[in-house]
Design a protein that fits this description.
Phosphorylase Kinase, domain 1; Transferase(Phosphotransferase), domain 1; 2 domains; two-stranded antiparallel ribbon; globular
Length: 379
């Protein structure tokens, strides 16, 4: 830009026949430069408009098209389409008294259809590109899965106001989090055999998901539902990812719930099935400790349960980690089994994902620990 700078040698105010020639040349130079810059700007704007039309407009059109398909058809990805009025009636117009819970993506309501079926309706907070993507993702994944420990999708709906709704089977006994450190824990804490059952059934569901090339990506006790027989139903697949079986990882921005997110994934942006293993390790610690994954009332260095657990396990201080109401000090069988589960959780919580076991190995180890109960009680 030196040609545009003003210095003392530049004949700004001189006027003479000779100076006139120099001035004309300089005016021509400035005019050419201005035209060149203007042309470049026009080309840049044209390029940006071209890119916008090629990328964003088709994406929006795709969303609109998908939404219209939902509104006009009776079946989507093989599941029924409910009318919005049906679900308004079932939930008493989404009465706040029917709220079952809420999360990062929406509020879940209890409802009852005219045919008598009890349902849980997830009402997404917003209707934007990201929400539609999560909506479609959850439907696509759940319609291709069949496992006794995965929640069933009954259908979905959409209306002209762009509200997206997902309809699931209703699981009546709350979440594992409720029973470990929520309101339900106060009245009737889970006994050890039920906690082992929850661990095994959740692991079984995750093994099935991984065998189906799916990473859950949000494994936590709030997403593990229980029926009246304390059978597990893993839920919430909004963040789940289809994982091609010919790659070792998927590069993606870390998403999930604080306290459960794989630190290796958080640091390297590489999602693998071992990310679910880490999260499940936190769930195991919750099952033996009855503590939440994150608790800001704990000491600064122990807010994160995984960090607290690793410290206690390394220092052989399990009596400071395991919930004493389980009988850790009075029942040798419980003490042995909780110790083995703590050791397994420690393996799952390794910072280096390569040192973590697979979910299949975790499931087999849990079954082995379960068999230990029978052996110890018969000796």
């Amino acid at each position: 830009m030196q040609c545009l700078s003003v210095d003392q040698s530049f004949p700004v105010a001189s006027w003479s026949p000779c100076g006139s020639q120099k001035t004309k040349k300089h005016i021509g130079l400035k005019l050419g430069l201005a035209l060149g810059l203007g042309g470049a700007a026009v080309m840049m704007v044209s390029f940006l408009l071209y890119r916008y039309r090629r990328i964003f407009i088709p994406a929006r059109a795709s969303i609109t098209s998908s939404t219209l398909d939902l509104e006009r058809s009776n079946v989507f990805f093989g599941v029924p389409i409910f009318t919005h009025s049906e679900l308004e009636e079932a939930t008493n117009n989404f009465d706040s008294k029917n709220e079952l819970g809420d999360g990062g993506f929406g509020t879940v309501y209890y409802g009852k259809l005219r045919d008598g079926r009890e349902i849980a309706v997830k009402r997404l907070y917003e209707h934007n590109y990201k929400r539609v993507e999560q909506f479609m993702n959850e439907i696509e994944i759940l319609t291709r899965l069949r496992h006794k420990n995965l929640v069933s999708l009954y259908g979905c709906t959409s209306r002209h106001s762009r509200e997206l709704l997902l309809v699931y089977e209703y699981i009546s006994n709350g979440t594992v989090a409720d029973h470990l450190h929520g309101d339900r824990a106060k009245s009737a804490p889970l006994i050890w055999p039920i906690r082992m059952k929850i661990a095994i059934e959740t692991a079984s569901a995750l093994v099935y998901l991984h065998a189906s090339d799916i990473i859950h990506r949000d494994v936590k006790t709030n997403n593990i539902l229980l029926d009246n027989n304390f059978c597990v139903k893993v839920a919430d697949f909004g963040l789940s990812r289809l994982f091609p079986n010919d790659v070792t990882h998927v590069s993606t921005v870390p998403q999930g719930t604080p306290g459960y997110i794989d630190p290796d994934y958080h640091q390297c942006y590489q999602l693998t099935d071992k990310s679910d293993v880490y999260s499940f390790g936190v769930v195991l610690i919750e099952l033996i400790s009855s503590m939440p994954a994150v608790d800001i009332t704990r000491h600064q260095h122990e807010i994160n349960l995984a960090r607290l657990a690793i410290n206690r396990i390394q220092n052989c201080a399990l009596d400071e980690l395991v919930d004493l109401c389980l009988g850790f000090k009075s029942d040798d069988t419980v003490k042995t089994m909780t110790t083995l589960v703590a050791q397994l959780a420690f393996q799952c919580l390794q910072q280096d994902k390569e040192l973590r076991p697979s979910m299949d190995d975790v499931l087999q180890e849990l079954k082995s620990i379960k068999s230990t109960e029978y052996e110890l009680e018969n000796h």
